[in-house]
Design goal:
By secondary structure, the chain is mostly helical. The chain has a domain of 77 residues: Tetratricopeptide repeat domain (Serine Threonine Protein Phosphatase 5, Tetratricopeptide repeat, Alpha Horseshoe), CATH 1.25.40.10. Helix content is 71%, strand content 0%. Helix 1 crosses helix 2, helix 1 packs antiparallel against helix 4 and helix 9 runs antiparallel to helix 10. It is elongated, with a radius of gyration of 19 Å. 45% of the residues are buried.
């Protein structure tokens, strides 16, 4: 069974913003390392930098104007098309985003960040095999420092395609590269919980608690795990924390 696009938008948006930070700042995920070689200077770079700042501030209309100026200034600039694609995706202008992503990849086919982001978008559109192919192209670059994010995208794509065995494999690979990668810890804990391996799920959530944020999603999962393992007092504490900190979250209704 596949998953509808609408349910992926929060995850997709979050990862695209991570990829934006990786690609346009030239820093690797949580390591301060360059993810790829620079593509050379362009007269569009000033507008790309401005658009990036507005994206990080979530000022989408101004970001769109600057991104469009970047493309108009230098249509050959892959960075310009990439930032435009990011903005279009955030504005849910899917056709425009797809065209801009495809152009960025065509102009810089060796850039793993672009391939990774384009793959995530294809997966969100239900084109799972194509999306996984783009993500695989990103992962094929041994110097790519965003591989944990790419593997997380591959896990998400596989989940939407109903391929649980691949989900687990990608998440484990992400954690092998970055043992403290909290999104992978949480998703693998969810998978282990669904499969009835509550002890493994608990161990993963213990690791998550040291690196991740106590989100409603994480608190609900932790409470459910403890109930399955017979630890009712801790489960009640986690449920109370969820109600107190996030009283209006959908997870409270699921308690």
């Amino acid at each position: 069974m596949t998953e509808r696009r609408g349910s992926l938008i929060p995850r997709l948006s979050s990862l695209l913003l991570v990829l934006l930070a990786l690609t346009l700042s030239g820093c690797g995920h949580a390591l301060g390392q360059r993810t790829h070689m620079p593509e050379g200077e362009s007269p569009a770079d000033l507008y790309v930098d401005l658009a990036t700042e507005y994206v990080q501030r979530r000022q989408w209309e101004i970001a769109l104007e600057r991104a469009q100026q970047a493309v108009a200034t230098d249509r050959r600039s892959a960075r310009a098309h990439y930032i435009l694609a990011i903005v279009y995706e955030q504005l849910d202008q899917r056709e425009e985003a797809q065209r801009a992503f495809a152009t960025a990849v065509r102009r810089a086919p060796r850039n793993p960040d672009y391939r990774n982001a384009w793959g995530a978008v294809l997966c969100a559109e239900g084109r799972h095999d194509e999306g996984l192919g783009e993500i695989a192209a990103a992962l094929a670059d041994p110097l790519y420092k965003g591989q944990d994010v790419a593997l997380m995208n591959a896990a998400d794509c596989s989940r939407m395609a109903g391929r649980d065995a691949d989900v687990k494999r990608y998440l484990q690979q992400a954690l092998a590269r970055n043992p403290n990668f909290s999104p992978a810890l949480l998703e693998l804990a969810k998978l282990q919980y669904r499969q009835g391996d509550y002890q493994s799920a608990r161990s993963l959530m213990a690791r998550y608690s040291h690196t991740g944020v106590a989100t409603p999603d994480a608190l609900l999962l932790a409470a459910r795990i403890e109930r399955q393992l017979g630890n009712a007092p801790l489960a009640r504490t986690l449920e109370r924390t969820l109600r107190q900190r996030f009283p209006h979250s959908p997870e409270v209704i699921e308690l």
